[in-house]
């Protein structure tokens, strides 16, 4: 027993040290204005260990499944772009209401990310009661996933509330640009949520981690090869995706697939961007200088990513008495009297099947 206790001490000390380093680095970051109702110390009194609980859970979970980090980063994108950062992406289908998860752009969101959010919900509930919203859990999980991949540490404004209903399929399709989009189209989508050209290039850097399905980029291989695609790189892609009906996957970033760094932009300079939406960032005269700057200066990318990701994480947030804090992240609280005060209880999580489609973010 004594040996087991002593073996845990170095791990605990490392977690404390890591938290101190994160806090120090986060202080030097630049942040956008905070949305009314959000603050950096929202849970200081009601759940003071909230952030450390999320951090410790994901440190262990990502060691077991490195792909989970990218999945949680992407989940935050898909939540915020559609109807704002209200955790509506987490709501399962009901007999009368479909889920956002059933919309084509969301079919490749990984089931492990949804499970991780519910696992975190359970731990936070045990520590603090039902205080932390599912929308904040998604944002916190994404923040920790960036850091676990070697990306920038940053402070996160909290205080989001959970939405009461999922967005329609039409709303999802109108909010998430397909990977075949070029820069003008991408900018038109981002303008709807007050994001600009610098935000576009910085947020696209999230593709430095994760995987993509052949169906999301096979338009660059068939029926003819995209001339902006590096020929050697194209040859490698043909091995993974020999036909336009292949359902294989490949890494978004061929250089450092599991590291959150600036190599995504180096890929673009070498014409090794995977999606049309990726490579067009170099082709387009407006975005090209930003791509080049991020490719040669990782700190510049990290600083802008933090600013843009925090900005995105405040899109159309619900705060105060708006929405609710869900008892279970997969289901809206029931309408029965007093049900909004019931403790969290688990429900069966519907599996989101993998499919060939993929989305830009």
From TrEMBL:
Q: Which cysteines are joined by disulfide bonds?
A: 47-128, 80-85, 134-329, 214-241
Question: What biological-process terms (Gene Ontology) are attached?
Answer: hydrogen peroxide catabolic process; response to oxidative stress; response to stress
Q: What class of enzyme is it?
A: oxidoreductase
Q: Which GO terms describe its cellular component?
A: extracellular region; plant-type cell wall
Task: Write out the catalysed reaction.
Answer: 2 a phenolic donor + H2O2 = 2 a phenolic radical donor + 2 H2O
Catalytic residues (positions): 78
Q: Where in the cell is it found?
A: Secreted
Amino-acid positions noted as binding Ca(2+) 2 in the UniProt annotation, renumbered to this chain: 208, 253, 256, 261
Principal location: secreted
Pinpoint the Plant heme peroxidase family profile domain residues: 37-333
Query: What protein is this chain from?
Result: Peroxidase
Species: Zea mays
**What lineage, starting at the top, does this entry show?**
Eukaryota, Viridiplantae, Streptophyta, Embryophyta, Tracheophyta
């Amino acid at each position: 027993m004594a040996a087991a206790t002593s073996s845990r001490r170095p791990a605990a000390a490392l977690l404390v040290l890591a938290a101190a380093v994160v806090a120090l680095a986060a202080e030097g970051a630049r942040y956008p204005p905070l949305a009314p109702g959000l603050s950096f110390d929202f849970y200081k009194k009601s759940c003071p260990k909230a952030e450390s609980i999320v951090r410790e859970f994901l440190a262990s979970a990502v060691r077991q499944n490195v792909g989970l980090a990218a999945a949680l980063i992407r989940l935050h994108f898909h939540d915020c772009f559609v109807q704002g950062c209200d955790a509506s992406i987490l709501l399962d289908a009901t007999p009368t209401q479909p889920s956002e998860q059933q919309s084509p752009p969301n079919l490749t969101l990984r089931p492990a990310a949804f499970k991780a959010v519910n696992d975190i919900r359970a731990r936070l509930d045990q520590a603090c009661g039902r205080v932390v919203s599912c929308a904040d859990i998604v944002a916190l999980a994404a923040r920790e996933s960036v850091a676990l991949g070697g990306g920038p540490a940053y402070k996160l404004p909290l205080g989001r509330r959970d939405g009461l209903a999922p967005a329609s399929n039409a709303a999802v399709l109108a909010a998430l640009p397909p990977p075949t989009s070029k820069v003008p189209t991408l900018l038109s989508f981002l303008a709807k949520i007050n994001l600009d050209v610098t935000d576009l290039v910085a947020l696209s850097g999230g593709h430095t981690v994760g995987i993509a399905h052949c169906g999301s980029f096979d338009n660059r291989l068939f029926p003819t090869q995209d001339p902006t695609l590096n020929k050697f790189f194209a040859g490698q892609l043909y091995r993974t995706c020999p036909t336009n009906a292949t359902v294989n996957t490949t890494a978004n970033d061929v250089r450092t697939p599991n590291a959150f760094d600036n190599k995504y932009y180096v890929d673009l300079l070498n014409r090794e961007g995977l999606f049309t939406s990726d490579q067009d960032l170099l082709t387009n005269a407006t975005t090209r200088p930003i791509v080049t700057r991020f490719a040669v200066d990782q700190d510049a990318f990290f600083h802008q990513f933090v600013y843009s990701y925090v900005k995105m994480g405040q899109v159309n947030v619900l705060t105060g008495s708006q929405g609710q804090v869900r008892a279970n992240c997969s289901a809206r609280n029931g309408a029965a009297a007093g049900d909004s005060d019931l403790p969290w209880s688990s429900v069966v999580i519907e599996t989101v099947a993998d499919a060939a489609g993929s989305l830009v973010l």
